[in-house]
Write a structure and sequence with these properties.
The structure holds two protein chains of two kinds. By secondary structure, chain A is an all-alpha fold. In chain A, 85% of the residues lie in helices and 1% in strands. Classes of the chains: A mainly alpha, B alpha/beta. Chains A and B meet through helix 4 of A and helix 4 and helix 5 of B. The complex binds adenosine-5'-diphosphate and magnesium ion.
Chain lengths: 278, 310
Protein backbone atom coordinates (compact mmCIF):
# COMPACT_ATOMS: atom_id res chain seq x y z
CA UNK A 1 0.00 0.00 0.00
CA UNK A 2 2.66 2.44 1.06
CA UNK A 3 4.82 1.43 -1.84
CA UNK A 4 2.04 2.17 -4.24
CA UNK A 5 1.36 5.55 -2.72
CA UNK A 6 4.99 6.56 -2.99
CA UNK A 7 4.98 5.33 -6.54
CA UNK A 8 1.97 7.45 -7.37
CA UNK A 9 3.46 10.48 -5.69
CA UNK A 10 6.59 10.09 -7.76
CA UNK A 11 4.49 9.66 -10.86
CA UNK A 12 2.57 12.82 -10.04
CA UNK A 13 5.77 14.73 -9.38
CA UNK A 14 7.19 13.54 -12.67
CA UNK A 15 4.14 14.73 -14.51
CA UNK A 16 4.25 18.04 -12.73
CA UNK A 17 7.93 18.34 -13.58
CA UNK A 18 7.23 17.60 -17.24
CA UNK A 19 4.38 20.11 -17.37
CA UNK A 20 6.55 22.77 -15.73
CA UNK A 21 9.34 22.10 -18.23
CA UNK A 22 6.87 22.45 -21.06
CA UNK A 23 5.69 25.79 -19.66
CA UNK A 24 9.24 27.09 -19.38
CA UNK A 25 9.96 25.84 -22.86
CA UNK A 26 6.95 27.58 -24.37
CA UNK A 27 7.79 30.78 -22.50
CA UNK A 28 11.23 30.54 -24.02
CA UNK A 29 9.64 30.13 -27.45
CA UNK A 30 7.77 33.41 -27.04
CA UNK A 31 10.97 35.25 -26.18
CA UNK A 32 12.90 33.71 -29.07
CA UNK A 33 10.18 34.57 -31.56
CA UNK A 34 9.80 38.08 -30.14
CA UNK A 35 13.55 38.66 -30.24
CA UNK A 36 13.89 37.39 -33.81
CA UNK A 37 10.98 39.42 -35.08
CA UNK A 38 12.35 42.64 -33.57
CA UNK A 39 15.84 41.81 -34.81
CA UNK A 40 14.56 41.49 -38.37
CA UNK A 41 13.20 45.03 -38.15
CA UNK A 42 16.80 46.27 -38.36
CA UNK A 43 18.05 44.35 -41.38
CA UNK A 44 17.18 43.87 -45.02
CA UNK A 45 14.94 42.83 -46.65
CA UNK A 46 12.34 44.81 -44.78
CA UNK A 47 8.73 44.24 -45.78
CA UNK A 48 7.47 47.82 -45.38
CA UNK A 49 4.37 47.23 -47.46
CA UNK A 50 3.29 44.46 -45.13
CA UNK A 51 3.88 46.71 -42.11
CA UNK A 52 1.65 49.46 -43.51
CA UNK A 53 -0.98 46.90 -44.47
CA UNK A 54 -0.94 45.38 -40.97
CA UNK A 55 -1.16 48.77 -39.26
CA UNK A 56 -4.12 49.63 -41.41
CA UNK A 57 -5.78 46.26 -40.78
CA UNK A 58 -5.29 46.48 -37.02
CA UNK A 59 -6.54 50.06 -36.92
CA UNK A 60 -9.59 49.38 -39.05
CA UNK A 61 -10.43 46.16 -37.21
CA UNK A 62 -10.20 47.73 -33.79
CA UNK A 63 -11.25 51.37 -34.06
CA UNK A 64 -14.99 50.91 -33.66
CA UNK A 65 -14.79 48.39 -30.80
CA UNK A 66 -12.26 50.55 -28.97
CA UNK A 67 -14.44 53.64 -29.41
CA UNK A 68 -17.54 51.79 -28.21
CA UNK A 69 -15.98 50.07 -25.19
CA UNK A 70 -14.21 53.29 -24.18
CA UNK A 71 -17.30 55.42 -24.48
CA UNK A 72 -19.56 53.10 -22.51
CA UNK A 73 -16.95 52.43 -19.85
CA UNK A 74 -16.55 56.17 -19.35
CA UNK A 75 -20.32 56.57 -19.08
CA UNK A 76 -20.68 53.84 -16.48
CA UNK A 77 -17.70 55.16 -14.51
CA UNK A 78 -19.31 58.62 -14.39
CA UNK A 79 -22.64 57.12 -13.36
CA UNK A 80 -21.09 55.12 -10.51
CA UNK A 81 -18.98 58.08 -9.44
CA UNK A 82 -22.00 60.36 -9.31
CA UNK A 83 -23.69 58.00 -6.83
CA UNK A 84 -20.61 57.51 -4.68
CA UNK A 85 -19.49 61.15 -4.69
CA UNK A 86 -22.96 62.47 -3.95
CA UNK A 87 -22.72 61.21 -0.36
CA UNK A 88 -19.70 63.49 0.11
CA UNK A 89 -21.26 66.31 -1.85
CA UNK A 90 -18.32 66.11 -4.23
CA UNK A 91 -19.99 65.33 -7.56
CA UNK A 92 -17.92 68.01 -9.30
CA UNK A 93 -14.97 65.65 -8.96
CA UNK A 94 -16.48 63.15 -11.43
CA UNK A 95 -13.96 64.21 -14.09
CA UNK A 96 -11.06 63.33 -11.80
CA UNK A 97 -12.55 59.94 -11.01
CA UNK A 98 -13.11 59.07 -14.67
CA UNK A 99 -9.73 60.21 -15.92
CA UNK A 100 -7.88 58.54 -13.04
CA UNK A 101 -9.54 55.21 -13.85
CA UNK A 102 -9.37 55.47 -17.63
CA UNK A 103 -5.87 56.71 -18.35
CA UNK A 104 -3.91 54.57 -15.93
CA UNK A 105 -5.87 51.35 -15.86
CA UNK A 106 -9.03 50.79 -17.81
CA UNK A 107 -7.95 52.36 -21.08
CA UNK A 108 -4.85 50.20 -21.56
CA UNK A 109 -6.51 47.10 -20.13
CA UNK A 110 -9.72 47.33 -22.14
CA UNK A 111 -7.96 48.20 -25.36
CA UNK A 112 -5.51 45.36 -24.70
CA UNK A 113 -8.21 42.79 -24.07
CA UNK A 114 -10.29 43.98 -27.02
CA UNK A 115 -7.33 43.87 -29.39
CA UNK A 116 -6.35 40.46 -28.03
CA UNK A 117 -9.81 39.23 -28.91
CA UNK A 118 -10.09 40.94 -32.25
CA UNK A 119 -6.57 41.24 -33.64
CA UNK A 120 -4.81 38.42 -31.78
CA UNK A 121 -7.38 35.87 -32.83
CA UNK A 122 -7.26 37.20 -36.39
CA UNK A 123 -3.49 36.86 -36.58
CA UNK A 124 -3.56 33.35 -35.13
CA UNK A 125 -6.30 32.26 -37.51
CA UNK A 126 -4.56 33.72 -40.54
CA UNK A 127 -1.11 32.33 -39.79
CA UNK A 128 -2.68 29.06 -38.66
CA UNK A 129 -4.53 28.56 -41.92
CA UNK A 130 -1.40 29.55 -43.83
CA UNK A 131 0.40 26.84 -41.89
CA UNK A 132 -2.14 24.08 -42.53
CA UNK A 133 -2.48 24.97 -46.22
CA UNK A 134 1.33 24.84 -46.50
CA UNK A 135 1.65 28.52 -47.40
CA UNK A 136 4.27 28.88 -44.67
CA UNK A 137 6.26 26.04 -46.23
CA UNK A 138 5.75 27.70 -49.60
CA UNK A 139 7.25 30.95 -48.29
CA UNK A 140 10.24 29.04 -46.96
CA UNK A 141 10.59 27.20 -50.25
CA UNK A 142 10.49 30.43 -52.23
CA UNK A 143 13.35 31.68 -50.11
CA UNK A 144 11.52 33.94 -47.67
CA UNK A 145 11.88 33.72 -43.91
CA UNK A 146 8.25 33.55 -42.68
CA UNK A 147 9.20 35.29 -39.44
CA UNK A 148 10.62 38.24 -41.32
CA UNK A 149 7.73 38.38 -43.76
CA UNK A 150 4.82 37.63 -41.42
CA UNK A 151 5.78 38.06 -37.78
CA UNK A 152 7.93 41.21 -37.88
CA UNK A 153 5.28 43.39 -39.58
CA UNK A 154 2.58 42.11 -37.23
CA UNK A 155 4.61 42.68 -34.08
CA UNK A 156 5.72 46.16 -35.13
CA UNK A 157 2.22 47.10 -36.25
CA UNK A 158 0.70 45.98 -32.94
CA UNK A 159 3.43 47.75 -30.94
CA UNK A 160 2.57 50.98 -32.75
CA UNK A 161 -1.18 50.60 -32.98
CA UNK A 162 -2.14 49.45 -29.49
CA UNK A 163 -0.83 52.60 -27.74
CA UNK A 164 -2.57 54.67 -30.42
CA UNK A 165 -5.83 52.82 -29.90
CA UNK A 166 -5.43 53.17 -26.14
CA UNK A 167 -5.22 56.95 -26.45
CA UNK A 168 -8.41 56.85 -28.52
CA UNK A 169 -10.01 54.56 -25.95
CA UNK A 170 -9.03 56.92 -23.09
CA UNK A 171 -10.39 59.89 -24.95
CA UNK A 172 -13.67 58.12 -25.81
CA UNK A 173 -14.03 57.12 -22.15
CA UNK A 174 -13.47 60.59 -20.79
CA UNK A 175 -15.85 61.94 -23.42
CA UNK A 176 -18.48 59.38 -22.38
CA UNK A 177 -18.01 60.46 -18.76
CA UNK A 178 -18.46 64.07 -19.78
CA UNK A 179 -21.76 63.29 -21.47
CA UNK A 180 -23.11 61.62 -18.30
CA UNK A 181 -21.71 64.32 -16.02
CA UNK A 182 -23.43 66.96 -18.07
CA UNK A 183 -26.72 65.13 -18.72
CA UNK A 184 -27.35 63.60 -15.24
CA UNK A 185 -25.38 65.65 -12.77
CA UNK A 186 -25.54 68.95 -14.65
CA UNK A 187 -21.82 69.56 -14.36
CA UNK A 188 -20.65 72.14 -16.90
CA UNK A 189 -18.49 70.62 -19.62
CA UNK A 190 -15.67 73.11 -19.01
CA UNK A 191 -15.54 72.21 -15.30
CA UNK A 192 -15.50 68.51 -16.12
CA UNK A 193 -12.52 68.85 -18.44
CA UNK A 194 -10.70 71.09 -15.95
CA UNK A 195 -11.01 68.43 -13.26
CA UNK A 196 -9.78 65.85 -15.75
CA UNK A 197 -6.63 67.89 -16.26
CA UNK A 198 -6.28 68.52 -12.50
CA UNK A 199 -6.25 64.80 -11.96
CA UNK A 200 -3.56 64.30 -14.60
CA UNK A 201 -1.48 67.06 -13.05
CA UNK A 202 -1.94 65.62 -9.57
CA UNK A 203 -0.31 62.41 -10.74
CA UNK A 204 2.98 64.26 -11.07
CA UNK A 205 5.35 64.74 -13.98
CA UNK A 206 8.51 63.16 -15.25
CA UNK A 207 11.04 65.36 -17.08
CA UNK A 208 8.84 68.28 -15.90
CA UNK A 209 6.35 68.08 -18.76
CA UNK A 210 5.33 64.45 -19.23
CA UNK A 211 2.51 63.48 -16.84
CA UNK A 212 3.13 60.21 -15.01
CA UNK A 213 -0.40 59.22 -15.94
CA UNK A 214 0.60 59.24 -19.59
CA UNK A 215 3.69 57.15 -18.90
CA UNK A 216 1.54 54.52 -17.16
CA UNK A 217 -1.04 54.77 -19.89
CA UNK A 218 1.39 54.30 -22.78
CA UNK A 219 3.98 51.87 -21.42
CA UNK A 220 1.26 49.32 -20.68
CA UNK A 221 -0.33 49.11 -24.14
CA UNK A 222 3.14 48.96 -25.68
CA UNK A 223 3.96 45.87 -23.62
CA UNK A 224 0.47 44.41 -24.14
CA UNK A 225 0.82 44.91 -27.89
CA UNK A 226 4.05 42.91 -27.90
CA UNK A 227 2.42 40.14 -25.86
CA UNK A 228 -0.61 39.91 -28.15
CA UNK A 229 1.35 39.83 -31.41
CA UNK A 230 4.02 37.38 -30.26
CA UNK A 231 1.53 35.00 -28.63
CA UNK A 232 -0.74 35.09 -31.69
CA UNK A 233 2.11 34.58 -34.18
CA UNK A 234 3.63 31.79 -32.11
CA UNK A 235 0.39 29.83 -31.79
CA UNK A 236 -0.49 30.56 -35.40
CA UNK A 237 2.83 29.34 -36.81
CA UNK A 238 2.77 26.25 -34.58
CA UNK A 239 -0.71 25.21 -35.71
CA UNK A 240 -1.10 21.55 -36.55
CA UNK A 241 -4.04 19.27 -37.18
CA UNK A 242 -5.88 20.91 -40.06
CA UNK A 243 -8.74 23.36 -39.76
CA UNK A 244 -9.53 22.13 -36.27
CA UNK A 245 -6.03 23.13 -35.25
CA UNK A 246 -6.68 26.67 -36.46
CA UNK A 247 -9.59 26.92 -34.01
CA UNK A 248 -7.42 25.63 -31.19
CA UNK A 249 -4.66 28.13 -32.01
CA UNK A 250 -7.18 30.98 -32.05
CA UNK A 251 -8.71 30.10 -28.69
CA UNK A 252 -5.35 29.55 -27.04
CA UNK A 253 -4.16 32.91 -28.33
CA UNK A 254 -7.07 34.83 -26.82
CA UNK A 255 -6.93 33.01 -23.48
CA UNK A 256 -3.15 33.12 -23.11
CA UNK A 257 -2.72 36.73 -24.15
CA UNK A 258 -5.63 37.90 -21.96
CA UNK A 259 -4.19 36.18 -18.90
CA UNK A 260 -0.70 37.47 -19.63
CA UNK A 261 -2.06 41.00 -20.08
CA UNK A 262 -3.85 40.92 -16.71
CA UNK A 263 -0.79 39.52 -14.97
CA UNK A 264 1.78 41.85 -16.50
CA UNK A 265 -0.53 44.79 -15.83
CA UNK A 266 0.02 44.29 -12.13
CA UNK A 267 3.78 44.01 -12.41
CA UNK A 268 4.15 46.98 -14.75
CA UNK A 269 2.08 49.10 -12.37
CA UNK A 270 4.24 48.12 -9.43
CA UNK A 271 7.42 48.77 -11.38
CA UNK A 272 6.25 52.15 -12.62
CA UNK A 273 5.07 53.21 -9.16
CA UNK A 274 8.46 52.35 -7.74
CA UNK A 275 10.24 54.09 -10.59
CA UNK A 276 8.10 57.22 -10.96
CA UNK A 277 7.11 57.59 -7.31
CA UNK A 278 3.41 57.87 -8.18
CA UNK B 1 16.01 8.91 -28.19
CA UNK B 2 15.80 6.08 -25.71
CA UNK B 3 12.02 5.74 -25.75
CA UNK B 4 11.84 4.78 -29.38
CA UNK B 5 9.53 1.79 -29.64
CA UNK B 6 12.05 -0.71 -30.91
CA UNK B 7 9.92 -3.60 -29.72
CA UNK B 8 7.20 -2.62 -32.15
CA UNK B 9 9.39 -2.49 -35.20
CA UNK B 10 9.88 -6.25 -34.95
CA UNK B 11 6.20 -6.83 -35.18
CA UNK B 12 5.95 -4.56 -38.19
CA UNK B 13 8.80 -6.18 -40.00
CA UNK B 14 6.62 -9.17 -40.76
CA UNK B 15 4.38 -6.99 -42.94
CA UNK B 16 7.27 -5.72 -44.96
CA UNK B 17 7.75 -6.88 -48.52
CA UNK B 18 10.23 -9.67 -49.04
CA UNK B 19 13.80 -8.42 -48.97
CA UNK B 20 15.42 -7.73 -52.27
CA UNK B 21 17.18 -10.65 -53.86
CA UNK B 22 20.91 -10.23 -53.98
CA UNK B 23 22.44 -9.41 -57.30
CA UNK B 24 19.37 -8.49 -59.29
CA UNK B 25 18.36 -5.87 -56.76
CA UNK B 26 14.71 -6.74 -56.74
CA UNK B 27 12.59 -9.79 -57.29
CA UNK B 28 11.63 -9.83 -60.92
CA UNK B 29 9.09 -12.04 -62.65
CA UNK B 30 10.53 -13.84 -65.63
CA UNK B 31 9.30 -14.97 -69.00
CA UNK B 32 6.13 -14.29 -70.95
CA UNK B 33 4.44 -12.35 -68.15
CA UNK B 34 7.16 -9.81 -68.14
CA UNK B 35 7.05 -9.35 -71.88
CA UNK B 36 3.32 -8.75 -71.74
CA UNK B 37 3.67 -6.09 -69.07
CA UNK B 38 6.44 -4.38 -70.97
CA UNK B 39 4.31 -4.25 -74.07
CA UNK B 40 1.48 -2.71 -72.07
CA UNK B 41 3.78 -0.04 -70.72
CA UNK B 42 5.14 0.67 -74.17
CA UNK B 43 1.66 1.39 -75.49
CA UNK B 44 1.03 3.69 -72.54
CA UNK B 45 4.21 5.61 -73.21
CA UNK B 46 3.63 5.78 -76.92
CA UNK B 47 0.24 7.31 -76.30
CA UNK B 48 2.06 10.11 -74.57
CA UNK B 49 4.65 10.39 -77.27
CA UNK B 50 1.89 11.26 -79.71
CA UNK B 51 0.41 13.90 -77.47
CA UNK B 52 3.80 15.47 -77.10
CA UNK B 53 4.82 15.19 -80.73
CA UNK B 54 4.26 18.89 -81.43
CA UNK B 55 6.38 19.87 -78.51
CA UNK B 56 9.93 20.54 -79.50
CA UNK B 57 11.66 17.90 -77.45
CA UNK B 58 15.17 18.62 -76.36
CA UNK B 59 17.62 15.85 -75.98
CA UNK B 60 17.03 14.36 -72.62
CA UNK B 61 19.13 11.81 -70.88
CA UNK B 62 17.16 10.12 -68.18
CA UNK B 63 19.19 7.78 -66.10
CA UNK B 64 22.37 8.32 -68.07
CA UNK B 65 25.06 7.43 -65.52
CA UNK B 66 27.53 9.85 -67.07
CA UNK B 67 25.47 12.68 -65.61
CA UNK B 68 25.89 13.71 -62.03
CA UNK B 69 23.44 13.01 -59.27
CA UNK B 70 21.33 16.09 -58.87
CA UNK B 71 19.44 14.75 -55.89
CA UNK B 72 20.47 12.09 -53.40
CA UNK B 73 19.21 10.82 -50.09
CA UNK B 74 21.70 8.66 -48.24
CA UNK B 75 20.73 6.42 -45.32
CA UNK B 76 18.22 8.95 -44.05
CA UNK B 77 16.54 8.33 -40.72
CA UNK B 78 13.79 10.54 -39.38
CA UNK B 79 11.42 10.21 -36.43
CA UNK B 80 8.72 12.55 -35.17
CA UNK B 81 6.76 10.97 -32.35
CA UNK B 82 7.57 7.63 -33.90
CA UNK B 83 10.00 6.62 -36.64
CA UNK B 84 8.81 7.76 -40.08
CA UNK B 85 11.79 7.02 -42.32
CA UNK B 86 14.47 4.40 -41.74
CA UNK B 87 17.57 4.05 -43.86
CA UNK B 88 16.04 5.67 -46.91
CA UNK B 89 18.36 6.10 -49.89
CA UNK B 90 17.80 6.95 -53.52
CA UNK B 91 19.26 9.26 -56.09
CA UNK B 92 18.17 11.11 -59.21
CA UNK B 93 20.44 11.81 -62.15
CA UNK B 94 20.08 14.98 -64.20
CA UNK B 95 16.92 15.00 -66.29
CA UNK B 96 15.34 12.08 -64.49
CA UNK B 97 11.81 11.89 -63.15
CA UNK B 98 11.51 9.81 -60.02
CA UNK B 99 8.09 8.97 -58.72
CA UNK B 100 7.87 8.31 -54.99
CA UNK B 101 4.84 6.15 -54.38
CA UNK B 102 3.39 4.70 -51.21
CA UNK B 103 0.31 4.64 -49.04
CA UNK B 104 -0.69 7.89 -47.37
CA UNK B 105 1.09 8.65 -44.13
CA UNK B 106 4.23 6.74 -45.11
CA UNK B 107 6.33 9.89 -45.28
CA UNK B 108 6.29 10.87 -48.93
CA UNK B 109 5.74 14.56 -48.27
CA UNK B 110 8.34 14.32 -45.55
CA UNK B 111 10.91 13.25 -48.15
CA UNK B 112 10.18 16.38 -50.21
CA UNK B 113 10.55 18.51 -47.09
CA UNK B 114 13.90 16.87 -46.43
CA UNK B 115 15.04 17.76 -49.94
CA UNK B 116 13.97 21.36 -49.39
CA UNK B 117 15.64 21.33 -45.98
CA UNK B 118 12.37 22.31 -44.38
CA UNK B 119 13.19 19.29 -42.24
CA UNK B 120 16.56 17.95 -41.16
CA UNK B 121 17.05 14.18 -40.82
CA UNK B 122 18.04 12.64 -37.49
CA UNK B 123 20.74 10.70 -39.31
CA UNK B 124 21.91 10.43 -42.90
CA UNK B 125 22.72 12.88 -45.67
CA UNK B 126 20.81 14.82 -48.27
CA UNK B 127 22.62 16.07 -51.36
CA UNK B 128 21.44 18.66 -53.86
CA UNK B 129 23.87 19.12 -56.76
CA UNK B 130 26.47 17.21 -54.74
CA UNK B 131 26.14 19.70 -51.89
CA UNK B 132 25.36 18.26 -48.46
CA UNK B 133 22.44 20.37 -47.24
CA UNK B 134 21.65 19.01 -43.78
CA UNK B 135 24.37 21.10 -42.15
CA UNK B 136 23.60 24.36 -43.93
CA UNK B 137 22.62 27.47 -42.00
CA UNK B 138 19.37 29.24 -42.75
CA UNK B 139 20.59 31.76 -45.39
CA UNK B 140 22.50 29.04 -47.28
CA UNK B 141 19.47 26.80 -47.16
CA UNK B 142 17.43 29.60 -48.74
CA UNK B 143 19.99 29.68 -51.56
CA UNK B 144 19.77 25.94 -52.17
CA UNK B 145 15.98 26.15 -52.21
CA UNK B 146 16.17 28.55 -55.12
CA UNK B 147 17.43 25.71 -57.29
CA UNK B 148 14.16 23.94 -56.64
CA UNK B 149 10.58 24.57 -57.61
CA UNK B 150 8.02 22.97 -55.34
CA UNK B 151 4.40 22.26 -56.21
CA UNK B 152 2.46 21.68 -53.02
CA UNK B 153 -0.38 19.23 -52.63
CA UNK B 154 -3.02 21.90 -52.17
CA UNK B 155 -1.03 24.28 -54.42
CA UNK B 156 -0.36 26.48 -51.34
CA UNK B 157 -0.95 29.66 -53.30
CA UNK B 158 -0.82 32.80 -51.18
CA UNK B 159 -4.51 33.48 -50.81
CA UNK B 160 -4.12 37.20 -50.20
CA UNK B 161 -2.32 37.67 -53.53
CA UNK B 162 -3.57 37.54 -57.11
CA UNK B 163 -2.37 34.87 -59.54
CA UNK B 164 0.04 37.41 -61.00
CA UNK B 165 1.53 38.31 -57.62
CA UNK B 166 1.82 34.63 -56.70
CA UNK B 167 3.88 33.79 -59.77
CA UNK B 168 5.83 37.03 -59.56
CA UNK B 169 6.67 36.41 -55.90
CA UNK B 170 9.85 34.33 -56.36
CA UNK B 171 10.98 36.73 -59.10
CA UNK B 172 10.56 39.78 -56.91
CA UNK B 173 12.31 38.06 -54.02
CA UNK B 174 15.36 36.78 -55.84
CA UNK B 175 15.87 38.45 -59.17
CA UNK B 176 16.54 41.98 -60.32
CA UNK B 177 14.07 41.69 -63.18
CA UNK B 178 12.24 44.84 -64.18
CA UNK B 179 8.50 45.04 -63.88
CA UNK B 180 8.11 44.51 -67.64
CA UNK B 181 10.36 41.44 -67.56
CA UNK B 182 8.42 40.03 -64.62
CA UNK B 183 5.18 40.53 -66.49
CA UNK B 184 6.59 38.80 -69.54
CA UNK B 185 7.85 35.88 -67.43
CA UNK B 186 4.49 35.48 -65.69
CA UNK B 187 2.72 35.40 -69.05
CA UNK B 188 5.22 32.87 -70.37
CA UNK B 189 4.77 30.54 -67.42
CA UNK B 190 0.99 30.79 -67.47
CA UNK B 191 0.96 29.93 -71.17
CA UNK B 192 3.27 27.01 -70.49
CA UNK B 193 0.73 25.54 -68.06
CA UNK B 194 -2.06 26.17 -70.60
CA UNK B 195 -3.81 28.94 -68.74
CA UNK B 196 -4.99 32.07 -70.52
CA UNK B 197 -2.93 34.80 -68.86
CA UNK B 198 -5.38 37.60 -69.55
CA UNK B 199 -8.21 35.65 -68.01
CA UNK B 200 -6.63 34.48 -64.75
CA UNK B 201 -3.92 37.01 -64.00
CA UNK B 202 -5.99 39.26 -61.75
CA UNK B 203 -7.97 36.50 -60.07
CA UNK B 204 -7.50 35.41 -56.49
CA UNK B 205 -6.67 31.75 -55.79
CA UNK B 206 -10.09 31.30 -54.17
CA UNK B 207 -11.73 32.07 -57.51
CA UNK B 208 -9.95 29.25 -59.34
CA UNK B 209 -10.89 25.59 -59.75
CA UNK B 210 -8.70 22.89 -58.18
CA UNK B 211 -7.01 22.02 -61.43
CA UNK B 212 -6.34 25.66 -62.26
CA UNK B 213 -4.86 26.21 -58.81
CA UNK B 214 -2.53 23.26 -59.37
CA UNK B 215 -1.42 24.72 -62.67
CA UNK B 216 -0.79 28.14 -61.14
CA UNK B 217 1.17 26.30 -58.45
CA UNK B 218 3.30 24.70 -61.16
CA UNK B 219 3.75 28.07 -62.87
CA UNK B 220 4.92 29.60 -59.60
CA UNK B 221 7.23 26.65 -58.92
CA UNK B 222 8.93 27.05 -62.30
CA UNK B 223 8.96 30.87 -62.34
CA UNK B 224 12.63 31.04 -61.38
CA UNK B 225 13.56 28.42 -64.02
CA UNK B 226 14.73 25.94 -61.39
CA UNK B 227 16.80 22.91 -62.35
CA UNK B 228 14.79 20.70 -60.01
CA UNK B 229 11.02 20.38 -59.69
CA UNK B 230 9.31 18.70 -56.75
CA UNK B 231 5.63 17.79 -56.91
CA UNK B 232 3.53 16.65 -53.95
CA UNK B 233 0.60 14.57 -55.20
CA UNK B 234 0.07 16.77 -58.26
CA UNK B 235 -2.91 14.78 -59.49
CA UNK B 236 -4.70 13.80 -56.31
CA UNK B 237 -8.26 14.99 -55.99
CA UNK B 238 -8.51 15.89 -59.68
CA UNK B 239 -10.84 14.47 -62.31
CA UNK B 240 -9.33 12.05 -64.88
CA UNK B 241 -9.12 14.67 -67.60
CA UNK B 242 -7.35 17.23 -65.43
CA UNK B 243 -5.14 14.44 -64.11
CA UNK B 244 -4.05 13.67 -67.66
CA UNK B 245 -3.40 17.36 -68.35
CA UNK B 246 -1.23 17.75 -65.26
CA UNK B 247 0.64 14.55 -66.04
CA UNK B 248 1.37 15.83 -69.52
CA UNK B 249 2.54 19.10 -68.09
CA UNK B 250 5.06 17.38 -65.86
CA UNK B 251 6.35 15.31 -68.78
CA UNK B 252 6.51 18.43 -70.95
CA UNK B 253 8.49 20.28 -68.31
CA UNK B 254 10.98 17.47 -68.14
CA UNK B 255 11.34 17.01 -71.90
CA UNK B 256 11.42 20.65 -72.93
CA UNK B 257 13.43 22.09 -70.09
CA UNK B 258 15.36 19.03 -68.95
CA UNK B 259 14.54 19.54 -65.29
CA UNK B 260 15.10 16.79 -62.78
CA UNK B 261 11.85 15.96 -61.02
CA UNK B 262 10.67 14.13 -57.95
CA UNK B 263 6.96 13.39 -58.08
CA UNK B 264 5.16 12.14 -55.00
CA UNK B 265 2.07 10.30 -56.08
CA UNK B 266 -0.11 7.35 -55.34
CA UNK B 267 -1.59 7.57 -58.78
CA UNK B 268 0.14 4.53 -60.30
CA UNK B 269 -1.28 5.16 -63.76
CA UNK B 270 0.33 8.56 -64.16
CA UNK B 271 3.42 7.34 -62.33
CA UNK B 272 4.04 4.78 -65.06
CA UNK B 273 3.59 7.47 -67.69
CA UNK B 274 6.18 9.89 -66.40
CA UNK B 275 8.65 7.98 -64.23
CA UNK B 276 12.13 7.03 -65.27
CA UNK B 277 12.36 5.34 -61.90
CA UNK B 278 9.85 4.57 -59.20
CA UNK B 279 10.53 4.41 -55.47
CA UNK B 280 7.92 2.63 -53.38
CA UNK B 281 7.88 3.61 -49.74
CA UNK B 282 6.46 1.09 -47.28
CA UNK B 283 6.95 0.50 -43.59
CA UNK B 284 9.40 3.36 -43.24
CA UNK B 285 11.71 1.95 -45.89
CA UNK B 286 12.22 2.01 -49.64
CA UNK B 287 10.55 -1.26 -50.58
CA UNK B 288 11.40 -0.87 -54.25
CA UNK B 289 13.54 1.39 -56.37
CA UNK B 290 13.85 0.84 -60.07
CA UNK B 291 12.33 1.34 -63.48
CA UNK B 292 8.58 1.04 -64.09
CA UNK B 293 9.26 -2.12 -66.10
CA UNK B 294 11.06 -3.69 -63.17
CA UNK B 295 8.23 -2.71 -60.85
CA UNK B 296 5.51 -4.23 -62.98
CA UNK B 297 7.68 -7.29 -63.46
CA UNK B 298 8.10 -7.76 -59.73
CA UNK B 299 6.36 -10.74 -58.14
CA UNK B 300 6.60 -9.38 -54.62
CA UNK B 301 3.21 -9.76 -52.96
CA UNK B 302 3.11 -6.32 -51.39
CA UNK B 303 4.13 -4.60 -54.60
CA UNK B 304 1.58 -6.57 -56.64
CA UNK B 305 -1.16 -5.54 -54.18
CA UNK B 306 0.07 -1.99 -54.26
CA UNK B 307 -0.06 -1.87 -58.04
CA UNK B 308 -3.59 -3.18 -57.86
CA UNK B 309 -3.42 -5.21 -61.04
CA UNK B 310 -1.56 -2.60 -62.97
N1 LIG C 1 5.74 18.12 -38.42
C1 LIG C 1 5.31 16.90 -38.06
N2 LIG C 1 5.26 16.57 -36.74
C2 LIG C 1 4.86 15.35 -36.36
N3 LIG C 1 4.50 14.38 -37.18
C3 LIG C 1 4.52 14.64 -38.50
C4 LIG C 1 4.93 15.91 -39.01
N4 LIG C 1 4.86 15.88 -40.36
C5 LIG C 1 4.43 14.65 -40.68
N5 LIG C 1 4.23 13.90 -39.57
C6 LIG C 1 3.80 12.51 -39.55
O1 LIG C 1 4.66 11.81 -40.42
C7 LIG C 1 3.95 10.83 -41.13
C8 LIG C 1 4.22 10.98 -42.60
O2 LIG C 1 3.66 12.18 -43.06
P1 LIG C 1 3.68 12.60 -44.60
O3 LIG C 1 5.08 12.68 -45.05
O4 LIG C 1 2.86 13.81 -44.73
O5 LIG C 1 2.96 11.36 -45.30
P2 LIG C 1 2.46 11.22 -46.79
O6 LIG C 1 2.81 12.45 -47.53
O7 LIG C 1 3.15 10.00 -47.30
O8 LIG C 1 0.98 10.99 -46.74
C9 LIG C 1 2.49 10.98 -40.77
O9 LIG C 1 2.17 9.96 -39.85
C10 LIG C 1 2.41 12.33 -40.12
O10 LIG C 1 1.44 12.32 -39.10
MG1 LIG D 1 1.57 13.91 -48.28
Amino acid sequence: MRGRLTHETIHLLERFNKAAKRQVHSLQEFFVLGGKSIGFAFSRPFYGGDLVQQMEAIGVQSLSIVLLTGFFTGMVLALQASVQLKTFGATMLIGRFVSASMIRELGPLLAGLMVAGRVGSGIAAQLGSMRVTEQIDALNTLGTDPIRKLVTPRVLATLIMLPTLTVINDFAGILGGSVIAWAYVKIPVALYWRTVWEQIAAGGFIFRYIPNDFVHGLVKPFVFGGIIAVVACNFGLKTSGGTEGVGVATTRTVVTSSILILMTDYFITQLLLAFLGS
Amino acid sequence: MSDRPDDRSDERRSHEPAPAREGTGFPVRRGADRERVRAAIRTELEGDEEALSQAETREYHAGDPSHHRVIALQNVHLAFDEPILEDVSFAAVEGETIVVAGESGTGKSTILKLLLRLLVPDRGNVYIDDEEITQLNFPDALKVRQKMGMVFQGAALFDSMTVFENIAYPLREHTALTEAEIEERVHEKLSFVDLDPDRVIDQLPSELSGGMRKRVGIARGMANNPEIMLYDEPTSGLDPLTTATITHLIIKLQRELGVTSIVVSHDIRSAFKMASKIAVLANRKIAFFGSPEELSGSDDKYLRDFLGGY
